[in-house]
Amino acid sequence: xxxxxxxxxxxxxxxxxACAEEKTVPYQKNVSIPKLVNTVNNPVIEGESPLTGxxxxxxxxxxxxxPMDNSPEAYPLWGISEASILFQVPxxxxxxxxxxxxxxxxxxxxxxxxxSGRMTMxxxxxxxxxxxxxxxxxxxxxxxxxxxxxxxxxSFRKPTRHYNLLGVHYKExxxxxxxxxNLSAHVNEIxxxxxxxxxxxxxxxxLFTDDPLDRGDKATVISVQYYNHKNHSSISxxxxxxxxxxxxxxxxxxSKSGDMTDRTTGEAVPFANVIVMRVPVxxxxxxxxxxxxxxxxxxxxxxxxxxxxxxxxxxxxHTDRIVFLDDSGNELTFQRGKTFIAVGxxxxxxxxxx
Length: 354
Fold this sequence. Notes:
single chain; 354 residues; mainly beta; YerB-like fold; 2 domains; 11-stranded mixed sheet; 10% helix; 32% strand; globular
């Protein structure tokens, strides 16, 4: 299986797969959304982690989002095995991306390498009502790509729910990792600081099921490619990845850097759900941001249990939770475990059944 995955990844990075089983997922900019979507938070289930559905750690709930590097030089990252959700978001018009880790149930002592905050990240932090820790922001004072402006506009400052790790607290440089990929966040210290100050967070649980998905196409190897915004034939090799399904472990993400592993544990990070969230992206001076700052709805490509269904996402206002819908227009029930969400518009998505 590993050999097949490696061949698949090489062919993907070279620009295509000459295989009869391959299916490309079309991008429909106008998807049918039910008129009435429940954006009220789902009930919290005692003893259950709200974003993984696994047994809860019992820690005070302080969701923390952390931007992480996605270049081969930065791998392997550390602390990521404790994130409930990993996002991949647009960074540059050439198809470069960053990762965004959401810690919501367990909080590692160290996580990194941490990078700067961008406006492709902040709407997600707001949608999950999370604190935002980051390594500075671009020097832009106003406009749709100004992180500083929107930190104030979206109430990250009152009370303080953001942490600039270029300051003196909650971080260190890891000597064994090359600069600039070596900034490490003390996530557990941020968690303790939020807890001590009694900062309140909305708990926005997903719905979960113990039954595997039994409909849709079989899709045991998924290809996610980000391409150049101005040249759709140019694929970003650094941003491209595959996800291989194994019933015993879940989805394992692979890229130019090999399997996604945690530097701390040395083990691959498994995902129970892989979602491609198609969000229109706009650009200003080379910086990306989402149309309407991600308020609206769009297509969601959902992979669970080695199968594919097409659904949708709904995010009515920046203060609402994001609701994922399945192929019947009902709120998606997640498989228990971690989730990977690839966000963007300039993407090619395909899959095969091995």
